[in-house]
Write a structure and sequence with these properties.
The longest helix is centred in the C-terminal third of the chain and has 25 residues. The strands form three sheets. Strands 5, 6, 10, 11, 12, 13, 14 and 15 form an eight-stranded mixed sheet that branches. Strands 8-2-1-9-17-16 form a six-stranded mixed sheet, covered by helices on one side. Strands 3-7-4 form a three-stranded antiparallel sheet. It contains ten helices and 17 strands. 33% of the residues lie in helices and 25% in strands. Helix 1 packs parallel to helix 2, helix 1 runs parallel beside helix 5 and helix 5 packs antiparallel against helix 6. The two termini are 37 Å apart. It binds flavin-adenine dinucleotide (FAD). The site of flavin-adenine dinucleotide has 42 residues, from helix 1, strand 3, strand 10, strand 13 and strand 15.
Length: 352
């Protein structure tokens, strides 16, 4: 097949690699000069590496291995936990994407940088993959339904601190989102905050307070972006156009994690049964993530803290990373609270 890919983010470069590896004739267009200019926390859950052609120990882009988390609520310490069997990596995303893209180019892919795609001659290609990220106007303009697709803002910067461990994620929750400090190699950190608020100033103020706690000195500007926060599109294909990654809403609503799903989508976007593969692997997880997000929004601060303190850390990690709704047995202590038990029952019984 002759394939055009719009955007060289995780979904685009991975699609370029795997499609060319399977012998397709691929062109990829990126509007920016450099890769990964969109701000990101750069944390990749281990599962994400199942979809790329190298292992974490075979790439120089991995800066930190993480398997612990410290959780705060509005900067008040709640718990620390080992996250295993879940673990992950913080990468230099620009190097990570470049590595995949360079190997794709070695496979014969044609890469065009500084090429903003607004229209494309659909007759010239058998398949067009819209991997253009959260703005996602190409597939939308060409008739794909973006019903229910909504964005949330997030900001990110870099800093240094001697008060963080290099195998630990630091997270401070608030009613509508969370701030993070992720290790970024020795003494460096990737910091940011995302949430369902309208005010960038509110996000910045919350982030600054959390950074103060760890004596983080910023070494970059704070930059803003957004992520699709309310689950994946129902359809991923319209004629010879498919969507992958953020442009398909493939982000875990409760955590904002999207690289794992973008890499997955890139690996399969050019297959005939792409929609079926995605439905079987991640569709339900991401839509359950929407239910969990709504449940989080519906809880008071006290209820949220109670739930976090009552559930065991492994269950909390499963909720956050894999959108697993805990069994009634695990939640039994929470049912003693009348208000909370009503909300839990509606979470368990609701279908999207
Ligand atoms: C602040 C922030 C922090 C985040 N942190 C994490 C995290 O720690 N871990 C995680 O898993 N996820 C995180 N995410 C989500 C993650 O960044 C995205 O889900 C992921 O990058 C999506 O990959 P993608 O390839 O679909 O899109 P993108 O990464 O957005 O890539 C799209 C590419 O297309 C290019 N492009 C756009 N339009 C055009 C056009 N018309 N023509 C040509 N090129 C075009 C863009 O320049 C870009 O390079 C975060 C998001 C934000 C906003």
């Amino acid at each position: 097949m002759k394939i055009a890919i719009i955007g060289a983010g995780p979904s685009g470069v991975n699609a370029a690699y795997w499609a060319s590896y399977e012998g397709h004739d691929v062109e990829i267009f990126e509007m920016k000069e450099k890769l990964a200019t969109k701000p990101c926390g750069e944390a990749i859950f281990n599962e994400g590496f199942n979809y790329v052609h190298f292992k974490p120990n075979e790439t120089k882009s991995v800066l930190s291995y993480v398997e612990n988390v410290h959780v705060y609520y509005e900067d008040e310490f709640l718990l620390e936990a080992n996250t295993k069997p879940y673990y992950g990596y913080i990468v230099n995303k620009s190097n990570f994407l470049e590595e995949i893209l360079n190997d794709a180019i070695d496979n014969g892919v044609k890469f065009y940088k500084k090429r903003f795609v607004e229209v494309i001659d659909a007759n010239k290609y058998d398949l067009i993959i819209d991997a253009a990220g959260y703005i996602a106007f190409f597939a939308r303009r060409n008739g794909l339904s973006y019903n229910g697709y909504k964005l949330a803002p997030a900001i990110r910067g870099y800093g240094i601190s001697n008060d963080i461990r290099d195998d630990t994620l630091y997270i401070s929750l608030f009613k509508y989102g969370y701030a993070w400090i992720f290790p970024y190699g020795k003494n460096k950190c990737n910091v940011g905050i995302g949430g369902h608020v309208n005010s960038k100033l509110d996000l910045e103020n919350r982030l600054q307070k959390f950074l103060k706690k760890f004596n983080v000195k910023l070494t970059s500007k704070i930059e803003g972006a957004a992520f699709p926060a309310f689950g994946p599109l129902k359809r991923l294909r319209q004629n010879n156009i498919v969507v992958a990654g953020d442009s398909a809403g493939m982000v875990m609503p409760i955590s904002g994690e999207g690289i794992r799903f973008a890499l997955f989508a890139g690996k399969f976007a050019f297959k005939n049964d792409y929609e079926k593969i995605f439905k079987e692997r991640y569709y339900n997880k991401l839509t359950t993530g929407v239910r969990l997000l709504n449940f989080w929004f519906g809880m008071s601060k006290e209820e949220l803290i109670k739930a976090i303190n009552t559930l065991d850390p492994k269950t909390l990690v499963e909720i956050f990373i894999d959108a697993k709704i805990p069994s009634i047995l695990k939640m039994i202590k929470l049912f003693k609270d009348i208000n909370l038990s009503k909300k839990l029952i509606s979470l368990i019984t609701s279908n999207q």
